[in-house]
Write a structure and sequence with these properties.
The structure is a single chain. This protein is an all-alpha fold and 328 residues long. It has a single domain, classed as ABC transporter involved in vitamin B12 uptake, BtuC (Orthogonal Bundle), CATH 1.10.3470. Helix 1 crosses helix 10, helix 3 runs antiparallel to helix 4 and helix 10 packs across helix 11. It starts with a helix and ends in a 15-residue tail after the last helix.
């Protein structure tokens, strides 16, 4: 029982940085902007956040700098794609490569240098609650913030007027424009906000989850974050579930190393990524026309609940995702 509690707490901690990255990407894509620069942005945020915290011996400043770096990369994406009309996919991919190489070059002086980290901060009183205390209330402020970010993002997107406007940018930008919304400016704001969250995700790794900075410190995490957003159907709660699933796979892989010591360690490092791809493939398979035909052939009593489950799993992308907007 104690081991299970420890593992559940570890899953929440391991998923915290991914939560920030995926919530940022969800906001971007709900506004109709594809941001493929996540991997490079996370690396830049991790490097800049750690370097700033090291130079000032101040962790909040590190997170602030990481957020500014993430916002700056998102601003470049917006200028090149929304203002100059270049492909969002191509620009994002180039920025991802640029961020990867630039973080390695600029971060060379602080490679493997010991530095500050987010302090452990259990919540008095709540941390002593049996079972729930060790799982939820014996962490650091970053993990608590990740737990609050998911419901806040959901509430903002689906229960506020600005959230409704943001979703309209990704579904029907022409309708939003007809109602007086400055579509391009609003997409700028949404993308920059999402980029800041992605930058914070980078600092979450270098100042908390994987303390310090090294060459390609978080390489590949941005692509996993994008995959999780798709898996989650651009819905905050489902996206968060994908983050916790990936974190659970990582924890399981670590535990399996002691059970299967003869297997190369690389197998356990790669396993969570492979399993996540398998899950994504299964979700896409459920949404395929062939699956729809097979479901339609089922008896009515079985077809209805199965179709309802598949419909929830196969959430469509925002209708205007990646499409340029031109004023009528």
């Amino acid at each position: 029982m104690d081991q299970l509690i420890t593992d559940l707490a570890a899953v929440l901690a391991a998923a915290a940085a991914l939560i920030f990255a995926t919530m940022g990407a969800t906001i971007n894509e709900r506004a109709g902007v594809i941001n493929l620069s996540l991997d490079g942005t996370i690396l830049m945020g991790a490097m800049a956040g750690f370097a700033a915290a090291l130079a000032t011996n101040n962790v909040p400043i590190g997170f602030g700098v990481a957020a500014l770096v993430g916002a700056a990369m998102a601003l470049v994406l917006c200028f090149l794609s929304l203002t100059l009309g270049q492909s969002q996919t191509a620009v994002g991919f180039v920025l991802a490569l640029l961020g990867t190489e630039l973080s390695s070059f600029l971060g060379a002086p602080v490679v493997r240098v010991p530095g500050p980290s987010v302090p452990y901060m259990p919540i008095p009183g709540l941390a002593e609650i049996p079972v729930l205390g060790p799982i939820f209330f014996r962490h650091d402020p970053l993990i608590y913030a990740s737990l609050l970010l998911v419901p806040f993002t959901w509430w903002f997107l689906f229960h506020t007027r600005p959230g409704l406007t943001l979703r309209a940018l990704g579904e029907r930008p022409a309708t939003a424009y007809a109602r007086g919304v400055p579509v391009t400016l609003a997409r700028y704001l949404a993308t920059i906000t999402g980029g800041a969250l992605v930058g914070i995700a980078g600092a979450a790794y270098s100042l908390d989850l994987k303390q310090g900075w090294s060459y390609r410190h978080t390489f590949g995490i941005g692509w996993i974050a994008l995959a999780i957003v798709i898996f989650g159907g651009w819905r905050p709660w489902r996206v968060a579930l994908g983050c916790y699933l990936f974190a659970a796979l990582e924890i399981a892989a670590l535990r399996s190393q002691s059970i299967l010591p003869n297997l190369p360690t690389q197998v356990f490092q790669v396993a969570p990524f492979v399993l996540m791809i398998v899950v994504l493939a299964m979700v896409n398979l459920l949404a395929s026309p062939r699956a729809a035909r097979r479901i339609a052939a089922l008896p009515p009593a079985v077809r209805r609940p199965v179709a309802a489950v598949v419909e929830r799993l196969a959430a469509p992308a925002p209708a205007a995702l990646g499409q340029p907007f031109e004023r009528p």
